[in-house]
Amino acid sequence: MNLKNIFAHYIRIAEQGDVDAQYNLGTCYYNGDGIEQNLEEAVKWFTKAAMQGHVQAKFQLGNCYYNGDGIEQNLEEAINWYEQGTITAQNELGISYYNGEGVEQDLDKAVKCFKKVAELGNANAQYNLGVCYYSGEGVKQNLNKAVKWFKKAADQGHLNAQSELGACYYNGEGVEQNFEKAVEWFKKVAEQGDVDTQCILGIWYYKGEGIEQNLTEAFNWWEKAAIQGNVNAQNHLGVCYYKGEGVEQNLEEATKWFKKAADQGDVNAQKNLGACYYSGKGVQINLEEAVKLNKKAAEQGDSYAQNNLGICYYNGEGVNKDLEEAVRWWKKAAEQGDSYAQNYLGNCYYKGEGVEKDLDKAFEWWKKSALQGNIMAQKNLGTFYHK
């Protein structure tokens, strides 16, 4: 029997008052199964079934009122139907109390709803109850209980619960710290396509945090996330290609991934791509583009880009020479602790370039840089002392 025939069957007996057929007919109209989607008709049939006590219809009708599907949004009416509906509806009711949507916010009532349904095995409610215990909302904070409920939901495949459980194991919250279990749970989430978790796994494998360092694994996880558009992963992938870590070095591929992330505003990718345009690695030298990208990153507070921008202004590379602008950007970077900028700033104060000559300030910035191990600053200090 095809969908059109099924629909015709439902409508015939639904009009005779059969409650299950009324609910099924509403579902057909809602999903567009066997008939063109019509949310107003879906609401009509869900209402008929709900009025006869069909619990699933009550839940679906609550959803329609909650989302404004086929009827004007009415959160109070949604709450009304949720209260009468299924176990799932009780979880939705808890969410409404938690967020204060359609009802006055009441975290105690939210917890009661979540707990009632969680104890019956509902994974969403178990996760929500875990969140409440973790944050101490509507209940006294108890990290052990948070882990308990996250675990119950995670064992049922709940994505967010698996992620939270992994984080608890990683940080040792509510459970003894266990990096292997953290990785185990994060892998479950990552394998379901969660890009943020894929990116985090890449970082752990790259740095060897809690697990044996594996650059190939780091690359593989970053590649999965990068392909899905995660900007952090795209930049990390670019670094792998640039350095030949976990993959054969390929500067063209590096700049490709830096550009994808830079175009989305990622500050690290902007400075990395700017450095490529400045040095001509993986792309033709383009000093104007290098300045443009370094400026974008510098304006977001990146000290590395601020230092590079200072160099461009000082040398007149890709921009008109402007010693005062060079000093301005070097000062921003120097105040964030960049040793190269501190040394350059010391040079400017020593020579009076772009700023009034001040030997005390020159000494001060050289000393800051030298203490960080900057060889040029150490030489400048040595020369200063001899004079």
Automatic annotation (TrEMBL):
Superkingdom: Bacteria
Organism: Candidatus Epulonipiscium fishelsonii
Name by which UniProt lists this protein: Uncharacterized protein
Higher taxonomy: Bacteria, Bacillati, Bacillota, Clostridia, Lachnospirales
